[in-house]
Structure prediction request, 1616 residues.
Amino acid sequence: MDGQSPRPQAHRRPEREGSHNYDIESTDGAGGPPWRQNGSSEALLRYDDGGVGDRGSAREPLLRKRTMNTTSQIAIVGANVCPIESLDYEVVENDLFKQDWRSRKKKQIFQYIVLKWTLVLLIGLLTGFVGFFNNLAVENIAGFKLLLTGDLMLKERYFTAFLAYGGCNLVLAVAAAAICAYIAPAAAGSGIPEVKAYLNGVDAYSILAPSTLFVKIFGSILGVSAGFVLGKEGPMVHTGACIANLLGQGGSRKYRLTCNWLRYFKNDRDRRDLITCGAAAGVAAAFRAPVGGVLFALEEAASWWRSALLWRAFFTTAVVAVVLRSLIEFCRSGKCGLFGQGGLIMFDLSSTVATYSTPDLIAIIILGIIGGIFGGLFNYLLDKILRVYSIINERGAPFKILLTITISVITSMCSYGLPWLAACTPCPVDSVEQCPTIGRSGNFKSFQCPPGHYNDLASLFFNTNDDAIRNLFSNGTESEFHMSTLFVFFTAVYCLGLVTYGIAVPSGLFIPVILAGATYGRIVGTLLGSISDLDPGLFALLGAASFLGGTMRMTVSVCVILLELTNDLAMLPLVMLVLLISKTIADNFNKGVYDQIVVMKGLPYMEAHAEPYMRHLVAGDVVSGPLITFSGVEKVGNIVHALKLTGHNGFPVVDEPPLTEAPELVGLVTRSHLLVLLKGKMFMQDQVKTSGSLVFQRFGAFDFAKAGSGKGLKIQDLDFTDEEMEMYVDLHPVTNTSPYTVVETMSLAKAAILFRALGLRHLLVVPKTPDRPPIVGILTRHDFVEEHIHGLFPNLNPHRFHSTSMGG
Amino acid sequence: MDGQSPRPQAHRRPEREGSHNYDIESTDGAGGPPWRQNGSSEALLRYDDGGVGDRGSAREPLLRKRTMNTTSQIAIVGANVCPIESLDYEVVENDLFKQDWRSRKKKQIFQYIVLKWTLVLLIGLLTGFVGFFNNLAVENIAGFKLLLTGDLMLKERYFTAFLAYGGCNLVLAVAAAAICAYIAPAAAGSGIPEVKAYLNGVDAYSILAPSTLFVKIFGSILGVSAGFVLGKEGPMVHTGACIANLLGQGGSRKYRLTCNWLRYFKNDRDRRDLITCGAAAGVAAAFRAPVGGVLFALEEAASWWRSALLWRAFFTTAVVAVVLRSLIEFCRSGKCGLFGQGGLIMFDLSSTVATYSTPDLIAIIILGIIGGIFGGLFNYLLDKILRVYSIINERGAPFKILLTITISVITSMCSYGLPWLAACTPCPVDSVEQCPTIGRSGNFKSFQCPPGHYNDLASLFFNTNDDAIRNLFSNGTESEFHMSTLFVFFTAVYCLGLVTYGIAVPSGLFIPVILAGATYGRIVGTLLGSISDLDPGLFALLGAASFLGGTMRMTVSVCVILLELTNDLAMLPLVMLVLLISKTIADNFNKGVYDQIVVMKGLPYMEAHAEPYMRHLVAGDVVSGPLITFSGVEKVGNIVHALKLTGHNGFPVVDEPPLTEAPELVGLVTRSHLLVLLKGKMFMQDQVKTSGSLVFQRFGAFDFAKAGSGKGLKIQDLDFTDEEMEMYVDLHPVTNTSPYTVVETMSLAKAAILFRALGLRHLLVVPKTPDRPPIVGILTRHDFVEEHIHGLFPNLNPHRFHSTSMGG
Prediction:
């Protein structure tokens, strides 16, 4: 099996001179379509990228709603049908585009640059506004709910208070789940895994659609207000990406908001750059951390990066920061209802100690170890829970709402019921703050306690999550929280965070992780108070960092986000140390939580490095037939037939006698270009090669611009007469004449690195020896997926060869 | 000329069966070597990467000492000989390495990971120590000099004071220039352009050698102490990179400091990663800015980047921050002589206003525009001055020292003479600081003034550069500096900064740029004081940012470095705005200063994007003969002959009859691997293909590890008997069987993107039609250089096609 395995025979066309008896067949062979027929009875057209059939692998894409009635392009991952489209970052160089580049005016280039910066500015402005609106709405809705309940509790109508509190939560939760389940199921969850996959080149169905954006914004507001243990940070990243996508594709055609100026951005490369900026803007808006946002996009989200993009992303986040600052300034005058200091979490630790000693470092190492273990466990449990949930969610929207109701009731019971366990504590005499708290947020919630006392567990539970974090991070409050309180709160938040993520509500993971981390940070700080001089507030911060490192495995961006949240440079080395330890430990158990979700959703994410077992295979081992090729001047009927019966997105074009002396590879033509060319109906009676000038007159490069997802031309939309079907069309002007190729004996590992580094969608495999047809096959993204390779070579044990970056 | 130009005929071997009559010839043809004979009469062996001859282009690599007596590998750029070696980031997959990967133990992988982190830790520790030592030495030397002069001035012995001041400066300057000119000429200048080029894949001669490190550290200390208008930041980056390189290659064999454990890191990829970390550590040590250091490495220095590297670089800078903090803590007790608060610049602007209005924004836009214009002008003038200086410096070390003496005298005269122009100002009554200043540094230098007065120009000139910057950035000091003072200081610093950079002393550009920028920032702030409420200290900061943006064109890293220097998040959006404007304006005039120096030095830097004119050429257009290929089982004599007479670093291996039925490309073998194989003398009597098992027993992968620059095996070191020369050697086990290839009709633009994205050294060009030999030529880095292409196609105007990222 070490690279010497028998290669699957590549499908070869019979080389009859002048004949065009193509093997046009469904990739499914003779049998019926293997995907599940589901709720919607509309048949799915099965598309894939290259020419690869079903390999019957057992991967289960979970968390995906399978009832969709769309003809969007679909790729096969494992045995399941996923509405996924690969993206193509390769520069297409065909004769038509070259003609266009040559004639491109300086004015157009100027227009492009101005538009680019305008778009980036708009992304920043809109994301900033949405981020502020989100906070404003949450603060007002949750504030109203808490004040109402607090009033009832003051009147000692405790059961009514619970009904009011739980009822508010339930209504908000059902509203969130309903819009999510019925309007845009793709909006559920964090959205960061999907954005990450998109930036890697995988476009999951409707993940950046306008309806998803709508549900993400309002679902997140409702979900956070409903008192769930979830955050708005992940959804903000997804929101930023959706805004960027919507602006980049010139609005939504469905909702008649289009703009033709934006034709320049109708390609995967420019769209990717805009969405990277949008993701950065989302983080910046969620945390008010412009630098952190850029680093997040860089470290976690983006798969390709370059200096110019860094600069553009930074500009976007700066705009977000300015917008947020101005709006908060505006709200200082009290015009924004219950919007106080809260919402945009911003913690001030500035008075903490600047020096630390050896015992402090030991405490920090302990924190790091705990963070690594809890983080790894969290990811493990989340994986299991999501698998269970996916079975429930699959049954349809009512079940999704039912699950959400269950979790909402449990959450309400925890946050209203558990504080009754805590004893009332007398108010500290030297407190700067009011005690007990009057109003919405504060450190000293009175709850059921008599005047002059407060309930420390209620200060954490009976608050918005942002306020609870602020209370945990507050410094100089060594004795505010009892040990038992912190233990109860940690257990509740850890478990609620786990069970909340999979419900059909936009839900981020940052807040649950920060909450749980800060709590055990304070526990450790209190326990080690005798040997360490650090403030428990700082311990809470370090705990949050360690848990973030343990679950998300981000380092630099978490560090900078925490730095920007707390505005304290002195703690930077401590945070770095704790992150290093927790990430290293957790990496021994499993992957980061976002990577795990990407895998679970069946998105064919490509890592930048090749797996070691790929070194023992060659490119020819994994390509497999049937391969459909076109002649340079092809009969219209053949093309239409091929497009109708297969879902291939790329077709090799081979010039054959009589056009050339010997068969010769011209290049690759994509489905979308073929469709545009066919629509133009520039057909000829004879099979002769033209100069292409007719095509150049008829078409410009922008006619071939990529439409928004699901909006491109479809072969079903085109009609041809029988006469037209017998005519010929010259494919040369639209054929990409410089496709990247590898020789069939190229190591699969190196082909994978090439594929990933250049952001390809199709990689042509050419034969090694000259006495063969000029093309062996096409490699696409899913040919590199481990399940596919394992399906072809069941005896090849991927774990036999150690996974390491050594020499790789 | 649009891609249809006649291709230079690739040299083709006569295909006589069984014959091995190779065309082994010097790439120079019959004539003598075309490089200039210079001071050292030792003949230079001329190496290049592929098989490409002299193209007679007119590019002049300046700023390079041409008298070197080394047999290090040399590449040709333009018409000149530059001691440059290309680096190879491709994963070599040959049978031997595959054998080795298969048998690699878990233990070894663990060893590798532990070593990697240990190295990174050591880089951080050492760079931190060096950074601190640098500051400590400068503060003490410069402090002693200033105190001595100040004492003499108090006694009104003004001329003696000038002699003492100028004399100290001169001695320090001559010492710096002497070690630089005689020991390590590569240590002159900033070092950032060279590090940037190294990380792009260009290894300039001895740029990371131990001698360069030594001179960089001590030359920088002497140069900064000598009162020049130059900084230690650039040299610190270079120092960090040198330390990383030294540690990575296991010490210096020359100085008998080697370590065999480090064999894992003896390849270009791992070394590149370490040097990226080193560069980040250098910035972190220079500015005490750990996050800024990482972003600098990311934005400016590195050409390739991945998430794991981000994390490692971040760890390195965290270690630097911890080391610096502990050492400064240690010095607080007064054990470090004159080392006060100074040295590691750290400015506190924390009390500046947090709000700003429209007039403030107008002021900031004006600052941005000025920064862009001054920045572009600075780069333009620096280019001219460096070209003049290179003529002087080329004449030898004495001339270098003479130039340094001239600049030193001018600098001393300016900084001692110009303050006499300023009038004495009475001390402000409400000043928190002592006035006039007693001791070394401070805002109110008395200079020649009577008691109770201070000379504001002396406060800027007669100080270390760090203290001058601190004075300019200080807030609440609206009336401290007169307008005339600021104008005089700005003019002097701008001009001195320009003339100082090219001298033979390690010299950074950050400090001159920050000084000049802060000064005009204060001027603008004072002029607009009536309409803007911002503090002049904040204006100085924004001015510095605008000038940094205008010259260096860095954005995110400058922003974060300034953020970390001033510890004030509120000014972040303002700094971003000013940087955006100044960079955008300056980009219309010329390139960033470091890119400009890279070009001027003739380093073949490859941008991540392809130039538009490359779209109109194909790969086959730029490859040119003679090409030397080896047979899979080759006669030793032929190999030795080829290695001796040419400087090619990569040779295609072609199996021919009788080994195979038809000629077939096996792969690529590199010079270094051939040398190791030849040294092993595993020769055979007959030309038969072996199983390779003998080679596998004799060699391990580590025997082929890359040695430090200039330390590898040389063909001259090997001796062969006549009998051995007639024997055969099997090249298959060491041939890279998966080299990346492009078809000769591939667009040059796309070949360039492939070459750059994968970090290749050799790219094989294969024929399109089957009836030709299996290899057309090899593309190397300099085949993509504009001068080379222009030399081949003089009629192709690169400026005819617009340079834009559209569609590219």
Remarks:
- Chain A touches chain B through 84 residues (CB under 8 Å).
- Residues 1-82, 800-808 of chain A have pLDDT under 50 and may be disordered.
